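DATA SHEET
Item: assembly model
Revision: 1
Owner: S.N.
Input lines:
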Amino acid sequence: MSATDEIRPFFPALSRKVYGKSLVYFDNAATVQRPQSVIDSWNRITRESNANIHRAVHLLAGEATDAYESSRDAVRDFINAAAREEIIFTSGATASINLVAFSFGEAFVRDGDEVIVSEAEHHSDIVPWQMMCQRKGAVLKVLPVDDTGHLRLDMLDSLITPRTRIVAVAHISNVLGLINPVREIVSRCHSKGVPVLIDGAQGIVHQSVDVQDLDCDFYVFSGHKIFAATGTGVLYGKKEWLERMPPFMTGGEMVGTVRFSGTSFAPLPMKFEAGTQNFAGAATLKPAIETALAFRSGRLRENEEAVKSYLLDKLLNDNRIHLYGVPSSPEEKIPLFSFSVDGAHHEDLALILDKMGIAMRSGQMCAEPLMDRFGVTGMLRASLVAYNTMEEAEYFISSLDKAIKMLV
Amino acid sequence: MEGQAKTLQETESEVVDEFSMFDEWLDKYEYLIELGKSLAAYPEGSKTDDRLIKGCQSRVWLDYRVSDGRIWFNADSDAIITKGIISLLIRIYSGRTPEEILSSDFSVVDRIGLKENLSPTRANGLVSMIARIKEIAVENSRI
Ligand SMILES: Cc1ncc(COP(=O)(O)O)c(C=O)c1O
């Protein structure tokens, strides 16, 4: 039995039929399908241990709190954070970035300061910084990408000035699928005393992340892209920063003492977890991480690599197709392929492929500045994980060919 | 300019009949693509923001002129399936008086199954397109 045959039955959605055909789910970068273990974890908490965490002394509250807090330990292990207090649960990558943009901005950004983001960022890693800059009178500067989609690292040093307060960059762009040299970016920024936030929404999915090794100051990701429940997310932040930042939201169990004359706040991580948390969701991060780890090892890894190489080869060597994010070597790319086709609109292609049973993303992909950079109104994106099979990839390539022939 | 020979309702039924011949969705798309490719040319100069219809993943421009009390629509899109749908709408609604247009219940899109079978984002665009046609008819009707 192939590795994918073994794993696919654990993902109920993968056996769906659409328009009478087997679903080919190639929109994993938007959200990945949930494994049964994650669904079971959610159900278990909801059916048996539903109680508000951190508040009561009764048994159910203890079980729910344990599930929530042991997920924090699992995340700490997963990204090798130095301490569990550095793991803050949020509702997703967007929420994590908003938290940092607000709280870091309040503490450290003044009129005339500067923030740097890359041209390839998701809107979620642009707009929160833009809003913060507007509030603070700061300036947002942009690190461009070249025609192959690589960051213009040669321009980084000259973009950084004594007024630069923070740099925010994706580990892997959700459009380009290229692994950015974040370790080098961090070390270059640190040499000038500038902290770095890494948007790991895509980066966390396909490869190991060690935040101590990267030495990044913040690393954010969403649970739903690594198999956990929707509405879950993580903010990793170095303690030295988190302790000096004011809370983003206030209320609930994040306080020390509350008097009408003033309030003191709870220590990390609760300081940043105001209100009743998504405890049923956060608990699913633990089984989700187990799945993510399994997907990166052994035969599943080999399968993913083989499928990726096949698609890279087919899409690069078809002169009707423009691939965005062309790697210098295959190791630099994850199985995420955004492209456009001469004379065929991305939406038409996506509609036709949908009717062929293939779910893909089309449009601006929450990265309008990058669409402008490449002079397109949108792209089509196929994004895979290790449960996708070579047969699906071959079916996709032949379906794409048919769709293009219908249109051009 | 002469108006259309058939009534608006007759043309609507004609379109519904044509679509009922296709069982397979891909065949419906083939047909829409063909219609889209044969849509009358739309001047580049009229692709302006005030003629752009919002709510589509693809861009749609809708222009019109009034002559002898009839409204003549002209439209374009950068996506071909959308152009096919536009061509259907033009066939039904162009060359009609505002009163004729407003006599339509605009259910033809549902009846050919376009709404539920198009992606939600596309359905939005379609709804916006029809809303705009209605709006133009209302603006030009003699009250
Ligand atoms: C690179 C990147 N950053 C941020 C986000 C935002 O994630 P979420 O919508 O889960 O908050 C995404 C998801 O689309 C992404 O791919």
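QC remark: The longest helix of chain A spans residues 59-79.
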